[in-house]
Amino acid sequence: MYGFRLSTKSIITALLTAVSLSLVLQGSAQADRDEDYELGVEAYNRGNFAVANRYFLDAIKEGNSNAIVMLYLAHSYAAQGQYKLALPIYRNIRDNFKGTAEAAQAGDCVVRLENPAGFAAGRSDKGSTTFYNRIKVIFPKGRHAAVSKETITTVQKAITSMPRAIYQILDSGQVKVTIASSAKDQFPTNAISGAAILSGKNICVFEKAIAGKSVKAFSQIDLREAFLKQAGQAVSDCYGGLSRDPDFHNAYRTDTRDLPEAIESTLPFLTPPANDAEKEVCTALIAELCGGNNKVTECVSKNFPKTRAWIINKLRLQN
Fold first, then answer.
1. Which of 80, 109, 118, 209 has the highest count of CB atoms within 10 angstroms of its CB?
2. CATH 1.25.40.10 spans which residues of the chain?
3. What's 131-238's CATH class?
4. Are 103 and 111 in contact, with CB atoms under 8 Å apart?
């Protein structure tokens, strides 16, 4: 039926026992607190999939059946070519965590694993990985500290908290994420002062800004908001630039008729000539719909209701 069959029933039995499929969705904080989970993620990001595999199994045996832990376990099996072990886990995540980003990823993996020849051929294509697993940590070139686990987790949680429709846009659009200790590690010749930028289809996140001897460390809240802003721009770009859509422009122009006089103090990009105002509003609204929560996203959401409604309809977030 699926193009291949498991060799023996004992493989399935051993796997189901190992992963302890209680499938009760617990809070993401449980995974965050689990040392084996964190060590597994660290090993996975370094390409040590067999080591990561053991950590994820230990985390699950200890009672952490969070969907993201199970997804990592399945990915670590698949990365080693052990598709027969990965497939049952993907199916369980798909069927028991419906409506989550993990279930969406697992469902995609099930489709590909049920055609093992095609999946194996696609493994050489870097774009075949899912958005969540296109996170790459850049190691520092200087003497400053490497990227912290806390920052990696902040980005991961921001991704898994996104509405499913937005996640799928970024996933199918082959958007990637890199996390560096500073912009100097990734763009040594460019002066970048912010916590994140969008470079093509790559959302680049930086823990700190370094200018000469001056070092500015960003808080986890700042990093999350900066990441979501660039994710909003990436979503827009996947559509060829949502703010250039005539219907978006009409909704935007309608909203601008009722703006309060002092709004430029919160949204300076509305100050004339305001050449990028529509683009900035579009980006901020998508960031807010992804869970962004700062003065800019709050102000834009409040004062551009028709534009926000248009984006919700366009991205099919009402479903």
1. 109
2. 9-128
3. alpha beta
4. no
- pTM for the model stands at 0.61
Rounded Cα–Cα distance for residues 131 and 153 (Å): 15
- Residues composing the chain: 319
Name which of 78, 79, 87 is nearest 110 in CA terms. Answer: 87
CATH class of the structural domain 9-128 = mainly alpha
CA–CA separation, 224 and 293 (whole Å): 10
Distance CA 42, CA 152 (A): 9
pLDDT at position 119: 47
What the block records as the tokens of 255 is 């909203």
Joined tokens for residue 254: 């309608």
**pLDDT (tens digit, 9 = 90+) per residue, 198-210?**
999 999 999 988 7
Instruction: Determine contact, residues 77/86, Cβ cutoff 8 Å.
Output: yes
C-beta separation of 277 from 270 below 8 A: yes
Which range is least confidently modeled, 4-13, 77-86, 176-185, 260-269?
Answer: 4-13
User: Which residues belong to CATH 3.30.2410 in the chain?
Assistant: 131-238
Helix, strand or coil for residue 179? Answer: strand
Matching residue, tokens 């040590």: 48
Across the strands, what pairs with 203? 177, 198
Structure token digits, residue 79: 């990365």
C-beta neighbour count of 226 within 10 angstroms:
22
